[in-house]
Specification:
The protein is built from seven helices and twelve strands. It is an alpha/beta fold and about 250 residues long. The protein starts with a helix and ends with a strand.
């Protein structure tokens, strides 16, 4: 099954990606799966590295943006919109209002709305993630490779926040319960999610688990009022979706 099918995308969506452990890879994988003939824009409200593929040309926000986008769409390309280029060669993100404007030009707008410095799990400050209010589906990415590791700065971005929200001590073993408590905590990653948006966690790198049951247990613990479906998979695998967990 493709990621596009697993997320059950409708004809028009603003898909925001948050969390850690493969957001950028998953976002571009989804963008590549969306059928030709449907206009797709990729962007960020934080910052990302420019994509290597020529299928994703970079477009900087400026007057006349819509004309440049239209030209890329005619060529079957999926432009990446940014507001500028940072010193570290990353693309600078756009704001939430600009994301709403992009909705007028494409059926699908895919937004990386969080940064995790490459970690598979993250504790969030009060100003993050930067989820656009126009989001219709929020993908919460969790790197399954963090299961079984210790809660510290080597394995988790801002472990002190994870400790505060879950009540676990620094150095504790990271298990499914800890991750589920973190993701579903009222002061956590979902606090600024629009009430109408569907929330779908994607447990990435699930194919690396020594005990696949741990991935299923995490998925089951995440299910609840806001989360009706969890996808188990690997964003880099030939078959990226391993299974879908529902209530």
């Amino acid at each position: 099954m493709k990621i596009f099918e697993a997320f059950a995308l409708s004809e028009r969506e603003v898909v925001s990606f948050v969390g850690g452990g493969g957001k950028t890879t998953l976002m571009f994988r989804l963008a590549g799966e969306i059928p030709l003939g449907r206009n797709v824009i990729v962007t960020t409200t934080t910052k990302i590295y420019p994509p290597a593929s020529a299928c994703f040309p970079v477009v900087f926000w400026k007057e006349g943006l819509e004309k440049e986008l239209a030209e890329h769409f005619k060529s079957g390309l999926k432009p990446v919109v940014a507001s500028g280029l940072l010193k570290d060669n990353k693309l600078k993100g756009i704001n939430a209002g600009q994301v709403s404007v992009l909705q007028n030009h494409a059926e699908y707008v895919l937004v990386e709305a969080d940064g995790s410095r490459g970690f598979s799990l993250k504790g969030h400050m009060g100003y993050e993630p930067v989820i656009p209010g126009s989001t219709t589906i929020l993908i919460v990415v969790i790197g399954a490779d963090v299961l079984g590791k210790n809660l510290n700065g080597n394995n988790v971005h801002r472990p002190e926040i994870v400790s505060c929200l879950t009540g676990r001590e620094i150095g504790s073993r990271i298990d499914a319960e800890m991750i589920a408590e973190l993701i579903t905590h009222p002061a956590g990653i979902l606090r600024d999610c629009p009430s109408w948006a569907r929330v779908v966690p994607f447990i990435n790198k699930a194919d690396r688990l020594k005990d696949p049951g741990e991935g299923y247990r995490l998925g089951s613990l995440l299910l609840g009022e806001k989360i009706k479906k969890v996808v188990l998979g690997s964003a880099i695998a030939e078959n990226p979706v391993l299974d879908i967990i529902t209530g």
